[in-house]
Amino acid sequence: MGKHSMTEASGSSLSSMPEWYTQGLPHIWLPYSQMKTASAPLVAARTHNTRITLTDGRELVDGVAAWWTACHGYNHPHIRQAVCQQMETMPHVMFGGMMHQPALRLASRLCTMLPGDLERVFFTDSGSVSVEVAMKMAIQYRLNKGQTKRTKMLAFRGGYHGDTLATMSVCDPEEGMHHLYGSALMEHVISPLPVDEASTATFLDLLAKHAHELAAIITEPLVQGAGGMLFHSPQTLRTLRKAANDHDVLLILDEIFTGFGRTGTMFACEQAGIVPDIITLSKALTGGTMALAATVARRHVFEAFLSDNPEHALMHGPTFMANPLACACANASLDLFETEPRLQQVQNINAFLTEALEPCRTLPGVKDVRTLGAIGVVELEKINNPDALRQRFIAEGVWIRPFRNIVYLTPAFTIEKQDLRKLTDAIYKVLS
Ligand SMILES: *Cc1c(COP(=O)(O)O)cnc(C)c1O
């Protein structure tokens, strides 16, 4: 291995590893990792429901459901069957000048489930790109109306909307690494979320001051996920909806994390009784099996693109747009929300997490314990060595990934009670 490469996994000697491992390791570039010092990740071999089996035979209970995606657990037979069937008839076909049943069926089903007149679906292949499309839609909505100056977004501290250049520029300035990329990022207006009197006043001031240059307000509803699982009340969303209306600014809700039941309702915006102008969906859209995302617009947004001027068309089209395998997968995932009691399971998980994590509150160094839907969070004063903490969890047989200053659970909705107990017991034990 080269000098500037990750160190081998603890407890395994390289000579005992298969050739694909020793040959591949020097060529892999890991996410969010300093490659000079990063230790090699675990090697997964198989998954089943809420468990991951490693190549060395160890089995871990997954507490994060593959970055918040695998809401039905891994390898659900209904999803597997749908994907296998689609694989036989048509794995992929271009979406330019052509379309297909899995995409049309998925689009109409999503629009039926979504509130209000969110009724036009634009498919992409990742969450970040679906947010970029939402931003382009909002900007072009203005341009098509002849308003050329309204190209900025108002975004919030603690927010996360993706890792591409355009989405980084609407993330929290510190966590979004704005200082690292500096002038490569677009400049937007960053406000505190209106959660109390003072922050609401600041937000309304910023909005009034910048409305003439704003295309949209963008936020994650109810939970800022990657920002540290920060919760806010439905009232905050109602404040945003009203302020957006008052200033004729569009409201984009990024439900990539919160969509599909995670917060207790199918979509988080339902809890505030509001309808965004544009919504983005991804993560659990395919039940965590394939990459797919959707940007859904309300009728009035879509209508601003209807014109005799060809330049008024939305100019975007990913190569793998509406991939039929991914659409079949998403349709199968929606079937499961209809045929199995997912929202009830989320409620049960919430009751369990609320009770089982409560004892952590009195542990030294614990700042807060909170739950919402199938999300459980133990916030610490500070995590000194997240790597060591992860290793402790692995030793307990659980896959829990602390970040920033939190230890959290976002399990599959299908998780068995004993597996959930294993996760909460591990958190209590390790934090003790
Ligand atoms: C994960 C996430 C994204 C980015 O999605 P990718 O598929 O990783 O590009 C955007 N917004 C939110 C709220 C997310 O949780």
From TrEMBL:
Keywords: Aminotransferase, Biotin biosynthesis, Cytoplasm, Pyridoxal phosphate, S-adenosyl-L-methionine, Transferase
Stored InterPro entries: Aminotrans_3 (IPR005814), Aminotrans_3_PPA_site (IPR049704), BioA (IPR005815), PyrdxlP-dep_Trfase (IPR015424), PyrdxlP-dep_Trfase_major (IPR015421), PyrdxlP-dep_Trfase_small (IPR015422)
Binding site for substrate: W67, Y160, K283, G317, R401
Subcellular location: Cytoplasm
GO molecular function, one term: pyridoxal phosphate binding
Any Gene Ontology CC annotation: cytoplasm
Site positions per UniProt: Participates in the substrate recognition with KAPA and in a stacking interaction with the adenine ring of SAM: Y32
Residue numbers binding pyridoxal 5'-phosphate: G127, S128, D254, P318, T319
N6-(pyridoxal phosphate)lysine carried by residues: K283
Cofactors that this protein relies on: pyridoxal 5'-phosphate
Catalytic activity: (8S)-8-amino-7-oxononanoate + S-adenosyl-L-methionine = S-adenosyl-4-methylsulfanyl-2-oxobutanoate + (7R,8S)-7,8-diammoniononanoate
Pathway: Cofactor biosynthesis; biotin biosynthesis; 7,8-diaminononanoate from 8-amino-7-oxononanoate (SAM route): step 1/1
Enzyme class at the top of the EC tree: transferase
One annotated GO biological process: biotin biosynthetic process
Gene3D superfamilies (UniProt xref): Aspartate Aminotransferase, domain 1 (3.90.1150.10), Type I PLP-dependent aspartate aminotransferase-like (Major domain) (3.40.640.10)
Enzyme Commission identifier(s): 2.6.1.62
Membrane-spanning intervals of the chain: none
Assembly information from the UniProt record: Homodimer.
NCBIfam families recorded: bioA, PRK05964.1
HAMAP family the record matches: BioA (MF_00834)
Summary of the function given for this chain in its UniProt record: Catalyzes the transfer of the alpha-amino group from S-adenosyl-L-methionine (SAM) to 7-keto-8-aminopelargonic acid (KAPA) to form 7,8-diaminopelargonic acid (DAPA). It is the only aminotransferase known to utilize SAM as an amino donor.
Family the UniProt entry places it in: Belongs to the class-III pyridoxal-phosphate-dependent aminotransferase family. BioA subfamily.
Protein name per UniProt: Adenosylmethionine-8-amino-7-oxononanoate aminotransferase
Species lineage: Bacteria, Pseudomonadati, Pseudomonadota, Alphaproteobacteria, Acetobacterales
Gene it is expressed from: bioA
